[in-house]
Amino acid sequence: MLAAAREIETLFGEDAVSYDEDDIENHGFSDWSSVNSSTRAVAVVYPRSTDDVVKVAEICHKLRVPIVPYGAGSSVEGNFSSPYSGIVIDVTHMDNILSFHPEDMDVVVQPGVNWVDLNKEMEKEKLFLPLDPSPTATVGGMVSTNCSGTNAFRYGTMKDWVTNVTVVLADGQVIKTRQRPRKTSAGYNLTSLFVGAEGTLGIITEITLKLAVVPSETSVAVVTFPTIFSAASAASRIIRSGIQLAAMELMDEVQMQIINRHGSEQVRKRNWDETPSLFLKFSSHSKEGIQSDICRVKELIERESTKFVFAKTKDDEAKLWAARKEALWTMTSIKPEGHAIWSTDVAVPISQLAEIIELSKKDGERLGVFTSIVGHVGDGNFHEALMYDPKDPAQSDAVKDAVRMMITRALEMEGTVSGEHAIGMGKKQYLMNELGPGTIELMKQLKTAVDPRWIMNPGKIFDLPNGSVIRT
Amino acid sequence: MLAAAREIETLFGEDAVSYDEDDIENHGFSDWSSVNSSTRAVAVVYPRSTDDVVKVAEICHKLRVPIVPYGAGSSVEGNFSSPYSGIVIDVTHMDNILSFHPEDMDVVVQPGVNWVDLNKEMEKEKLFLPLDPSPTATVGGMVSTNCSGTNAFRYGTMKDWVTNVTVVLADGQVIKTRQRPRKTSAGYNLTSLFVGAEGTLGIITEITLKLAVVPSETSVAVVTFPTIFSAASAASRIIRSGIQLAAMELMDEVQMQIINRHGSEQVRKRNWDETPSLFLKFSSHSKEGIQSDICRVKELIERESTKFVFAKTKDDEAKLWAARKEALWTMTSIKPEGHAIWSTDVAVPISQLAEIIELSKKDGERLGVFTSIVGHVGDGNFHEALMYDPKDPAQSDAVKDAVRMMITRALEMEGTVSGEHAIGMGKKQYLMNELGPGTIELMKQLKTAVDPRWIMNPGKIFDLPNGSVIRT
């Protein structure tokens, strides 16, 4: 492996390869990850172009050295761990917008582009990429985990916004999955195969992204409910009405308490009701559209809700939504020194969401684990954040049990073990439970066809086949 | 091959296998196809369940006999031809709705379900599958060609409405790509791999479809323009405004003439302006929403348009849209005995649409081919229908030239050779031009991994590898 790193260094120069221990550690371990491997890569490589990646792949392929792609490091399921060591490819320097076609509503970028920066550029033309994962996330990682976030209810997930990808395959060959039409039915949908493949089929070096029109009018409402069930029932009535909200988020009473006590000053002073709450984002191209949507929604859910507050000004709107935005941050801020947060998600058919949330909360209580819940309720997807002391074996076991039970229930409800965080190392066994050995075997056959030496991000999504020859 | 058919007959009984010449002909030849192979299958098999398909696959796999899936026979690129003979699997009897979950907004169906029938059932719960290909089409074929139609501008294409598929692989193994969550980022997106694969990777025997809410309010406007360019420029302004129309269709002056002269009585009597026209469909959940959209659109495109007519009643709405609906039918009705229509499509980045339409129309004129154009302008996708006498070599050549030029231009504009009809046999060479040998090779590697004997609908999308052993 070091031989591979040295060969890359010879080609690109010293600056392009790092052997620094801290650097390697930062590229192989994350506090945010549900799992971390104990192994680390031997070096981190910083390519600047598709050609650079080709050279790295050729060397690693020749020497059978694992390649682990790295974007912003914000994934949570060990997606960028190095369980078989190898070489990390960090795409930090591949952060250019290559071409922007506002009239076609698309943009071609390198994988290291941060989505917040991208949207600042796109705003000039009133366009945006309508995903909202971690603000640090870069497009390559967003593609590779099929990310989403609060906007998915209206705009779908990453797979819906990728027109084509350019990929360096394991042996260094470069392919492009499509040209640039927004619509096509020509041949296999390779784009969708690479989206969500977590770098196990190749390194994505260019992405053409579709863009959406920034809505000219937006507003926010916060609605409180006596129970999770009544909130979910209200959400269901909104969904079935056909009114197209921009987002529909659920926070449970625990998360509302945390917001009241530990939110930013402007958020705290509102003194939120500590009951399950729906955060609704409205968007439209006209003021009348927004007003009509807010009135209709209010009428629709009057029966279940206890309070309906909506933003009358832009300032109001930002302040209301801030409570939702601060959810993760407040949870982190109350974490005692040495404690950890296990943050994970599942998705189920929407009619099942209230039940799985209630049951998961009860599990948390019974097991004595501090648990808060935030849900993308319009997608049947929710996040559970569990706080625990990883040095306490009883607490660690309790958290693992709680997560296992949540996932097992999601599967019993015909759901999925990962709504928007992919599989990484953390959910491999669960994925097997979700899809069964036949479907996993088919995935592995595809993997073998594309990467016969299994050097691309090995040990993610599924285990290596028995008897694989990979350097460790 | 006959041995395979006999073995299937022994298992299922005589009624399940047809050797009737007419039956085989109807399953191997289509007037609507741009190409037809001269070879025919040896038999047509009519399975009734996934298990039946498994048995057929096992026998055909053992004996290395090609399997060609058949839905409604409405595809146009030779997608269900039998260039290597084999056995046709007709899914006519697999036409059950297996389970309907209105609260989850999804439905599980067999591949032989017709989408119009399905939507009649779904209407009870104010839900629908928002695709509109040929009214005869069945879900299996719609999935396999990644179909779309006029609704795609708002609702996307078939790939966006499939939650999971159950597939019988070449060796008879059954896999299911997902459970039933609307959102997931768990493992490879096998669903999207099978959508649009034209039956070359396996036979789809069950499909879970997402459903949309039927909009409570709809309306239609027809807007005329002096040129295709001004129509496209108006369309572009609407798209960039963010106003979400249900459909945006373009008909050229030739198609408008045909409508005036050969449309149904109710359509003819309106006396349409014979200039490029946009047919706009509006939909909303409120009357105010529709009114506001119509007013905004009218304002936006006033500069380019010469006339703006919108429906004031439901009856009006149906009559206006009828002209768009009758487009294909009127073209067929004026076809002289013995003449044929070559109907094909491409898609380009939306800014290029007006130019490619204008150039394609000029090609048609220059080559003396009667050509009409209907465009899904919101998707950068258009259809050209060319009328000719297939027995006249000069006319046949002219049509082939016109199609070739249209496709070549689409590729030069970074478009695709097929917007919504897939590749079949008709566009194999063009797909190679679109994607290049490396990408096609990757598709073939995937094909080989899943179907090593290449028995699944061979000769579609791409050619067989050199030296393939397949019975002919």
Automatic annotation (TrEMBL), chains A, B:
Top-level taxon of the source organism: Eukaryota
InterPro entries from the UniProt entry: FAD-bd_oxidored_4_C (IPR004113), FAD-bd_PCMH (IPR016166), FAD-bd_PCMH-like_sf (IPR036318), FAD-bd_PCMH_sub2 (IPR016169), FAD-linked_Oxase-like_C (IPR016164), Oxid_FAD_bind_N (IPR006094), Vanillyl_alc_oxidase_C-sub2 (IPR016171)
Domain FAD-binding PCMH-type: from-to ranges: 37-214
Cofactor(s) essential for the protein: FAD
Assigned keywords, A-Z: FAD, Flavoprotein, Oxidoreductase
Keyword 4Fe-4S: no
Pfam families registered for this protein in UniProt: FAD-oxidase_C (PF02913), FAD_binding_4 (PF01565)
Protein's recorded name: FAD-binding PCMH-type domain-containing protein
Organism lineage: Eukaryota, Fungi, Dikarya, Ascomycota, Pezizomycotina
